[in-house]
Amino acid sequence: MAKNKSSEIPHYEMLYIISNKYTEEETKTISKKIKEMLEKEGGKITYEEEWGKRKLAYPIEHFNYGYYNLVEFDLEAKKIEKINNAMRIMKEVLRHVIVKKQKRTLEEIKEEKEKREKAIQQLQGKSEKTEEKIKEVKKKETKEKKKIDLKQLDEKLDKLLEVDDLL
After folding, report:
1. In whole angstroms, what is the distance from residue 91 CA to residue 12 CA?
2. Which of 20, 73, 87, 167 is the most buried (most CB within 10 A)?
3. Which residues of the chain have pLDDT under 70?
4. What is the pTM of this model?
5. Sheet holding 44-60: strands in order across?
6. pLDDT tens, 102-129?
């Protein structure tokens, strides 16, 4: 065996998007079908996570939303191509990607989740602050418009009153 090759079974991560035309309950049966396919090929699922329904970055097959699922598994490298082809053929799956990844411990997974949740909270806080700033700017603009309008009215009135032809 070569020095750089290990006898350990490689670890993979697969992210797949199920079409929005299915209900949440139907997506669970589809993801169960995918897990069974992995296990049938000799894969051992180490971690799985359902991200739920999310908006796609761009429409795929006329769908704007999809159900995201993440699965980590151990599988022989020879069988990845077979899994990849089977996923490509599935009509329920809009897109999928399989990448080789290092194994993670449960603590690492928890830390990543916490970091993700903190980042989401920070982004939500920033978006709320920017919305407040936008509202303040709009209020100032409307006040300035009112002031300008009053000034313009006063100038016009003064010009009208200066005319001698009124009497």
Report:
1. 22
2. 73
3. 1-7, 126-127, 143-148, 163-167
4. 0.62
5. 44-60, 63-74, 11-19, 93-100
6. 877 778 878 888 888 888 777 777 667 7
The residues pairing with 69 across neighbouring beta strands, listed in sequence order, are 16, 50
Token code pair at residue 96: 């999928």
Helix and strand totals (H; E) in the chain: 3, 4
| Tokens describing residue 35 | 């897990």
Long-range pairs of 80-83 with CB within 8 A, sequence gap ≥ 24: 80/12, 82/41, 83/14, 83/37, 83/38, 83/41, 83/43
Q: How far is CA 145 from CA 131, 141, 154, in A?
A: 21, 6, 14
Asked whether 63 and 94 are in contact (CB, 8 A), the reply is: yes
